[in-house]
Amino acid sequence: MEADCLIPAQTIEEIRKKSDIVKVISEYVPLRKRGRSHLGLCPFHSEKTPSFTVSEEKQLFHCFGCGAGGNIFDFIMQIDNLGFAEAVRELGEKLGIEVEGAGPAGSGKSLRDQLYDLLQLAERYYQKSLQGPEGQTASDYMKQRGISEEVAARFGLGCVPDGWDNLYRYLLSRGADPKLMEQAGLVLERENEKGSYFDRFRSRLQFPIMDTRGRVLGFSGRSLDGKEPKYLNSPDTPVFHKGEAVFGLNVTKEAIKAAKTAVLVEGNVDLISTFQAGIHNVVAPLGTALTIGQCKLLARFADTVVLAYDADPAGESAAEKSAELIISAGLIVRVAQFSGAKDPDELVQKQGPEALKKALTESLPYLEFKIKRTLGRHNLKEIEGRGRALKEIGQLLSRETDQFAQKEYAKLAAAALKTTDEQVLAEARKLKFYNNPAARDLRRTVEKPPSRIIAAEKHLLALAAQNSEAREKLKAELPLDRFITIEARQIAALLYGADLSGEEAPEHKLLSLIEDEGAKRFLTTALLGESPANPEEILGDCIESLKGEHLKERVNAIKSELRQAEASGDTAKASELISALKAEIS
């Protein structure tokens, strides 16, 4: 990875040394100190029990659930989907260290940076258009929806006037490359006219989608001429992935952090209305179904999410789907309900900001919302309807781990179902039993090397990665083919071939050379292990263990071939193998 960029090695090392891995990762993942390490929910996969560990002492991270791991550069590359050079520069910017040559070898700015610059230019064009006579339609719409100029400016709202190529011609006049415009999702090439382009967004109020650093990633455009779609989002690009971004977070993240709660509304205009009502800890999921990527993003800033979706069956259904995803990301979910209005925007328009604040304050815990919705779906006047509702509620309560909450919700359901809370709890217990069968996984497992051998390989590689004497001893006494696992062999090949002399932290240099994710995980877990009190003795013992395992494998292979030769009557081959076997054993 390092070979693909022109950043001086000393700059990379300076940034690595000055970066505090716990502080940086805490910006993305809430961490709690546990012994000598810090623990949190993994940002790379869904989990409810924390298995993501960060070592301040060793400046490494590892997830024991999904296997993600590495050093500070690896984390930034994975979490922000960056290349090595871009990760180095991003960390350098945080530290105030100037990074020269951060693009790929032989280039100037990276593609991502060129796209950021172009999208910023497009945003300025849209904002300028909103302020001119061509923005009158958009201004009228904003007045109609009660969007103030101050808040519009705060969120960077703009407009694209009617016309096929207004933005294209503007960007062209500023020297932009049409192909780059296309990569940024701003223009489209005409199907039957190669080299001819037109604007993707036309006659729309533009909401810029930004990352938490305020960089424009793309746009969400609201139709002003009644044409479908009502909302049009930028396509996925090298800098924008719709399922991993939300609208407004660049403005509202500090309020969300302070409240430890994010209010999630369905649309961009709902967000603006909510913000203007004085509720600043609000975001919107770009008018599409919520994704696990968006949930993980919110989990970086909040413990709780209040769903403020439309008060109709479609909105309630969307709230249920969103809630399940949010819970899987380790967050608490509450659901706001609106009386006399279909959404937050209408509630503010009809009843004022205080009505919205009251609705959010009185939001229901998700399980209570779900139980009430289940009760409302069935005809509780009939025995059959109550029976079906009992089964559904039993299913819901079977997943509740808090016994006090389970009993309270059982009382609530029992009153509506005209039964006892004990019967509701019995249904929950029954369904919990049936939903957790003790069936064994009978899939054939791939044979793995003994755990003692894997442990020996990890001890050897961790010691050799950090200590030059151990490294030289290992190279002299243990050829590559003596390593048993593929991952250890890959790491050893790099270790034996790399010049790590003079490196202040050779283990981090070695990590940066590894491209295979499995090998990187293997070395990370090795480095996170406890340092032995007697490293020289451990080194010798582990070398002998691998030599012994290699000999055992070799002897077993020869014996297998010998049996085949004897069975087929090939005496010459059998004699040759017997000699080989004696040579190995002697």
Automatic annotation (TrEMBL):
Record GO cellular component, one term: primosome complex
Renumbered zinc finger spans (CHC2-type): 42-66
GO MF annotations in UniProt: DNA binding; DNA-directed RNA polymerase activity; zinc ion binding
Catalytic activity: ssDNA + n NTP = ssDNA/pppN(pN)n-1 hybrid + (n-1) diphosphate
Domain of life: Bacteria
Pfam family, one: DNAG_N
Entry EC number(s): 2.7.7.101
Keywords of the record: DNA replication, DNA-binding, DNA-directed RNA polymerase, Magnesium, Metal-binding, Nucleotidyltransferase, Primosome, Transcription, Transferase, Zinc, Zinc-finger
InterPro entries: DNA_helicase_N/primase_C, DNA_primase_core_N_sf, DNA_primase_DnaB-bd, DNA_primase_DnaG, DNA_primase_Znf_CHC2, DnaG_bac, DNAG_N, DnaG_primase
Needed cofactors: Zn(2+)
Co-factor binding details: Binds 1 zinc ion per monomer.
One annotated GO biological process: DNA replication, synthesis of primer
SMART domains tied to this protein: TOPRIM, ZnF_CHCC
Annotated ranges, domain Toprim: 260-341
Record remark on domains: Contains an N-terminal zinc-binding domain, a central core domain that contains the primase activity, and a C-terminal DnaB-binding domain.
UniProt record similarity statement: Belongs to the DnaG primase family.
Main function: RNA polymerase that catalyzes the synthesis of short RNA molecules used as primers for DNA polymerase during DNA replication.
Oligomeric and partner information: Monomer. Interacts with DnaB.
Name by which UniProt lists this protein: DNA primase
Native organism: candidate division WOR-1 bacterium RIFOXYC12_FULL_54_18
Gene label: dnaG
